[in-house]
Write a structure and sequence with these properties.
CATH topology of one domain: Tetracycline Repressor, domain 2
Structural class: mainly alpha
CATH architecture of one domain: Orthogonal Bundle
Shape: elongated
CATH superfamily of one domain: Tetracycline Repressor, domain 2
Order of helices and strands: HHHHHHHHHH
Number of strands: 0
Strand content: under 5%
CATH class of one domain: Mainly Alpha
Helix content: 55-70%
Radius of gyration: 21 Å
């Protein structure tokens, strides 16, 4: 006599994790992470609140998971550009090109979710804030390594590397805020070009 398979206890998992993450990503990105609730995500995806909480633990857990997705989508490509062995001017052109892509054609919101999350960090949970700090540190380290490499080739001004890394980080944040405000991409690109080329053109005189 054949034995019956063991019955599965509990409710079957019906939550579409990827759909919830992608929906939350676009909602946080377009409206601001502090302005979107789990109820909003459930209404858009058809997921239940208990299902979302079982999968992510909390609103904080969902935001942390979304930030991880965003890291792969929009932060890692920046780090990849910085780590590529290329002339400093080519890296700057690649960074500007990536930051000022036609978002409408790509079907993604204007601005940067990471920048928005940093601005609203006091309204976010501890796990999300820890993740934000880790990503920012990885970006600053990547900027710093890129700047040091550029200096070794005589392609960057004699500015303290930590200061220069913060300067580049500030240009990225400012550009994303301008884009969010509706300033045309070609104008944002021009601003970035002027700002990011200053340490090259100013080589030995800046900071003295």
């Amino acid at each position: 006599m054949n034995e019956k398979p063991n019955s599965v206890r509990g409710r079957p998992k019906t939550l579409d994790r990827d759909r919830v993450l992608q929906t939350a990503l676009i909602q946080y990105w377009s409206k601001g992470p502090a302005n979107v609730s789990i109820s909003d995500i459930c209404n858009l995806t058809g997921a239940s609140k208990p299902g979302v909480y079982r999968e992510f633990g909390s609103d904080d857990g969902l935001k942390e998971a979304v930030l991880e997705v965003y890291h792969s989508l929009a932060i890692q490509p920046v780090i990849d550009i910085l780590e590529k062995n290329q002339p400093t001017t080519d890296a700057i052109d690649a960074l500007i090109g990536f930051m000022t892509q036609d978002r409408t054609a790509l079907g993604i919101p204007q601005g940067c979710l990471f920048v928005m999350m940093r601005a609203q960090s006091q309204q976010l949970g501890p796990s999300t804030c820890v993740k934000l700090d880790k990503i920012r540190l990885s970006l600053l380290n990547a900027y710093g390594a890129w700047i040091e490499h550029s200096k070794s080739r005589g392609e960057f001004a004699d500015i303290p590397t930590d200061i220069a890394a913060l300067f580049v980080d500030a240009q990225h944040g400012g550009a994303m805020r301008m884009q969010r405000e509706g300033i045309p991409n070609d104008t944002v690109a021009r601003v970035l070009e002027i700002a990011l080329r200053m340490p090259i053109l100013g080589a030995s005189t800046i900071g003295r």
